[in-house]
Amino acid sequence: MVLNVSPTLNVMITAARKAGRSLIRDFGEVEQLQVSVKGPANFVSIADTKAEDIIYKELSKARPGYGFLMEESGYIEGADTTHRWLIDPLDGTTNFLHSNPMFAVSIGLEREGQLVAGVIYNPASDQLFTAEKGKGAYMNDRRLRVAARKTLGDALLTTGIPHRGREGHPRFLKEMEVMMREVAGIRRTGSAALDLAFVAAGRFDGYWERNLKPWDMAAGIVIVREAGGIATGLDGSDKMLETGDIIAANIQMHKAMMPLVGDKPAKS
């Protein structure tokens, strides 16, 4: 297991794994529901809510008073205003809906406005990504480092594609037109949390996306940074949770990507 796990990170891991067990049971049911006329959409919504409830109960019991910001339940203020959990119980809902095993539980912890710990767990692959500020990032028992590639021509990037009902289609198409001329490949996992975890693991060289929610990014930001990477907003600021956009990579790749998809040129 991960070395030097603090009691707080251990609580987060326990909650993520417990929610993951619930999701993987429901995932098996979704695969069976694919053949039904009605489809599994309502079932998935129940699975999502159930996983969030598991996480909420686990974290509330272990750390009473901490606040919550959750995808399904929204903001719940705690007596301890210095700490806040940011939770996505099922990141990659559309994948889950289509029996695609690329989904994750994401739990981030904010202390006095700073992200200090993150856990991303894909129960389908049993891959657990964890990090605490100043202690490094891990996948299960392996230390993570971002990829060392320095040029866009060698890079495999990942991004999010705005779907029906989401804004930003024209801007995304312009960004893709520019970026796809420069890189070795571009992928989409369908989960922002896994995109960030995979950047931390060196599976992707960089990631950018717009119109995200804080719970999509919180855990992944900590994990990327503790793996030696850079995670900022597309304007270069540290306000990703406010702006909803993000770019993550190693230092050189971040600098190369910013002029192409960022909202201002990267600083030299």
Can you lay out the helices and strands and say which pair or pack?
Blueprint lengths: L6 H27 L7 H22 L3 E5 L3 E3 L3 E12 L1 H5 L6 E8 L2 E9 L4 E6 L3 E4 L2 E2 L12 E4 L9 H11 L5 E3 L4 H9 L5 E4 L4 H13 L3 E3 L7 H4 L2 E4 L1 H11 L7
Parallel strand pairs: 1-3, 9-10, 9-11
Antiparallel strand pairs: 1-2, 3-4, 4-5, 5-6, 6-7, 7-8, 11-13, 12-13
Helix pairs in contact: 1-2, 5-6
Can you walk me through this structure?
This protein is of the alpha+beta class. The chain has two domains: 7-143, Fructose-1,6-Bisphosphatase, Chain A, domain 1, CATH 3.30.540.10; 152-261, 3-Layer(aba) Sandwich (D-Maltodextrin-Binding Protein, domain 2), CATH 3.40.190. It has helices at residues 7-33, 41-62, 93-97, 169-179, 192-200, 214-226, 240-243, 251-261, and strands spanning 66-70, 74-76, 80-91, 104-111, 114-122, 127-132, 136-139, 142-143, 156-159, 185-187, 206-209, 230-232, 246-249. The protein has an eight-stranded mixed beta sheet, with helices on both faces. Strands 10-9-11-13-12 form a five-stranded mixed beta sheet, with helices on both faces. Helix 1 (7-33) runs antiparallel to helix 2 and helix 5 (192-200) packs parallel to helix 6. It starts with 6 loop residues before the first helix and ends in a 7-residue tail after the last helix.
Characteristic key phrases:
38% helix; D-Maltodextrin-Binding Protein, domain 2; Fructose-1,6-Bisphosphatase, Chain A, domain 1; 2 domains; alpha+beta; 268 residues; 8 helices; single chain; globular; eight-stranded mixed β-sheet; five-stranded mixed β-sheet
